[in-house]
Amino acid sequence: MMISTRGRYALRVLVDLAEHGGGLVPMKDVAARQGISKKYMEQIMALLVRDGYVEGVHGKGGGYRLLRSPADYTAGEILRAAEGTLACL
Predict the structure, then answer these.
(1) pLDDT at position 89
(2) Other C-beta atoms within 10 Å of 21: how many?
(3) What is the mean pLDDT of each run of 10 residues along the chain (89 residues)?
(4) Contact 41, 48 (CB under 8 A)
(5) What pLDDT sits at residue 33?
(6) Distance (Å, rounded) from C-alpha 52 to C-alpha 33?
(7) How far is CA 78 from the centre of its chain?
(8) Fewer CB within 10 Å, N- or C-terminus of the chain?
(9) Which residues, including other chains, have CB under 8 Å from residue 53's CB and lie 6 or more apart?
């Protein structure tokens, strides 16, 4: 199976949120730690918010947080959210 850059980044973002969670984590902080451009990360976060994996809060003091316990996420569901259907080669 080949995983796209978007899929890899989505996994890295969720791991980062799990490690630095407990409250809202600013997107710019995650982007800086993960070496992802802010614009590309906005696209990924929109997918994760749409599918109910993270919650986003706008404005001062805003950021993102996981909606479930980190143990309740699977790599497959995150990859499907980021990439659509998964196909094995």
Answers:
(1) 47
(2) 15
(3) 87 94 89 94 93 92 92 92 69
(4) no
(5) 94
(6) 23
(7) 8
(8) C
(9) 14, 66, 67, 68, 73, 77, 78, 81
Cα–Cα–Cα angle for 42, 60, 48, nearest 5°? 30
pLDDT of residue 61: 86
- DSSP letter at 69 equals -
Tokens encoding 16: 């980062």
Residue type, 69: S
Token pair for 51: 């599918």
Instruction: Write down the pLDDT at residue 59.
Output: 87
* Closest of 48, 47, 15, 50 to residue 30, by C-alpha: 15
| pLDDT for the residue numbered 3 | 83
Instruction: Look at residue 64 and give its three-state secondary structure.
Output: strand
Q: Tell me which residue has tokens 């994760």.
A: 48
